[in-house]
Amino acid sequence: MSSGVRTDSSRSLRAGFRQWRAHRPFWGGLLLALAGAEILLTEKASLKVVMHIGMQGLAGYLLPTMMLLCGLLILFNPAQRLFYSLLGILLSLGTWLTSNLGGFFIGLLLGAVGSCLTFGWLPDQKPRRRLLRRGHA
User: Fold this and answer.
1) Residue 90: exposed, middle, or buried by beta-carbon count in 10 A (0-12, 13-18, 19+)?
2) With helix as H, strand as E and coil as C, how does the chain read?
3) Alpha carbon of 54 to those of 39, 51, 87, 130, 137: distances in Å?
């Protein structure tokens, strides 16, 4: 009987997560946050070396951290998604110069795609089922 309770609670958790995810640009925010995390992981230098190098070295950590923060803010505050997505694309492009070519292109591409997905997301848009049925009008 405990397995029946477990599946009911997991189903309600899954349904709750799907409802939460449907009201925000989930994939865009997730990709932008993952891009920031990936770029941060590709940084090799320790914080002592960055402080010794100066502002350009510090920007290598600052830009991906801001990307990660923008991705999380998109997920938890979708009302400001346009500002965060514009800031996210600018930060992603800035990592080209400051963070190992944007985390070896992977973080740069993830950040750009996530920002574009977020910018293009429209809340409360009904699904376009007519386009899926081509033969039926």
Assistant:
1) middle
2) CHHHHHHHHHHHHHHHHHHHHHCCCHHHHHHHHHHHHHHHHHCCCCHHHHHHHCHHHHHHHHHHHHHHHHHHHHHHCHHHHHHHHHHHHHHHHHHHHHCHHHHHCHHHHHHHHHHHHHHHCCCCCCCCHHHHCCCCC
3) 19, 5, 23, 56, 63
Per-residue pLDDT of the chain (137 residues; tens, 9 = 90+): 455 456 788 889 999 988 888 889 999 999 999 999 999 888 865 555 554 555 567 888 899 999 999 999 999 999 999 999 999 999 999 988 888 787 788 999 999 999 999 999 988 777 666 655 555 55
**Do 88 and 110 contact (CB within 8 A), yes or no?**
no
- Tell how far CA 99 is from the center of its chain: 18
Residue listed under structure tokens 């699904």: 127
CA pair distance 80, 3, nearest whole angstrom: 41
